[in-house]
TrEMBL record:
PANTHER family (alphabetical): OSMOPROTECTANT IMPORT ATP-BINDING PROTEIN OSMV (PTHR43117)
UniProt family annotation: Belongs to the ABC transporter superfamily.
Keywords annotated in UniProt: ATP-binding, Nucleotide-binding, Transport
PROSITE patterns: ABC_TRANSPORTER_1, ABC_TRANSPORTER_2
GO molecular function: ATP binding
Protein name: Betaine/proline/choline family ABC transporter ATP-binding protein
Pfam families linked to this entry: ABC_tran
Amino acid sequence: MTNPDAAPGAHPGRETPAMIRLEHVGKRYPDGTHAVDDLSLDVAAGELVTLVGPSGCGKTTTMKMVNRLIEPTSGRIHINGRDITRTDPVKLRRTIGYVIQSGGLLPHRTVLDNTTTVPTLLRWDRGKARARARDLLDLVGLDPDTYGKRYPHQLSGGQRQRVGVARALAADPPVLLMDEPFGAVDPVVRDRLQTEFLRLQAELRKTVLLVTHDIDEAVRMGDRIAVFAQGGHIEQYDTPLAVLGTPANDYVADFVGADRGLKRLAVTPVTPDDVEQPPVVRLDDRLADARARLRAADARWAVVLDEAGALHGWYDDRNGTGGIRLDGRVRDRARRMDAWVPVGSSLKAAFGQMLQYDAGWVAVLDGDRFLGVLTPARLHEALRRSVGAEETGIAPEDVVLETVDNAPGR
Ligand SMILES: Nc1ncnc2c1ncn2[C@@H]1O[C@H](COP(=O)(O)OP(=O)(O)OP(=O)(O)O)[C@@H](O)[C@H]1O
């Protein structure tokens, strides 16, 4: 299963031919350090793979061998079927976007000039290169008129990172290498940059290798995660759900942390099977009719939709009619409620909405269509089902749970 927060079209790679293939790759530095050892890895086109592990375990060395900033001492690396040792390294690097932690911008060049670096090296027409750079700055959330003429020191850390991403994408490379790209900014900015990059990736579907030492970032960003250990080998290479659900060994279990059950919230999607159906009334319904419907369903509250069928909020019958005439309309008693998530969002996003709105449920929508509500009990069930599925190999929807009483509207 792919990461629900990750790019929708990005797929775990087994069905499609690899865009990046490492075959028994090793790197021994001249001083004898064995940084990478017999490492094999396939990354499918359009897939985002995170390389995660503690400091010094060979993640950066592995990544730099893909654009030949470092030469392997054994093994083969192919990009799109071509052995990269047969490609001139300088030419190769112009076809691979590269984003590093500090942004890696040239300090004496403006943001616009930094962004046009690779297209200029590729001898693009100047007008075309600048137009492309402006589009990309816009895409990464920087107004080109405001920021294009600034120098890197006139930007915040987060803005520099955005320019770094725009620059890496300028020549439209199929492959993007990102080395701790969000490492130099504070957690709030990092979270925003991660979200923005995932949105961008959903559109661009680049083949991405992203190095991080942060398991949360690896889980959030990756379609698949490669967990590295000291000595430069991979202990597990799988989807975030599988790595969190069934760590391959004690090392991986230790690395992903004791709270891996919680981390699964971020990678388990809300499906239509998870929602329940409380009674639904419309703003224009008569209160008497709404009450009758609630009574018939033995429920205390109902979801309220507006005339167009969009979520408005809820109607609570618990306090009786309190003197309000029953020939009134639901709109007289309805309360607004903005807690909702699109189907397919992560359970974590749904839980976040519940907390933000202090709500006992969130509506789940498919486009504008109301599918039902997710309650804390249902959320817990979905999480347990996903753990059960991982342990038993059964599809999540077929996992049988001993359920708690969580009937809607009660
Ligand atoms: N030029 C070099 N010469 C000798 N050893 C090196 C060289 N570059 C890196 N190493 C060693 O190779 C190992 C892997 O380094 P690498 O930078 O790939 O790790 P990493 O997982 O990216 O670490 P970090 O998260 O700290 O960046 C380390 O032990 C490091 O000290």
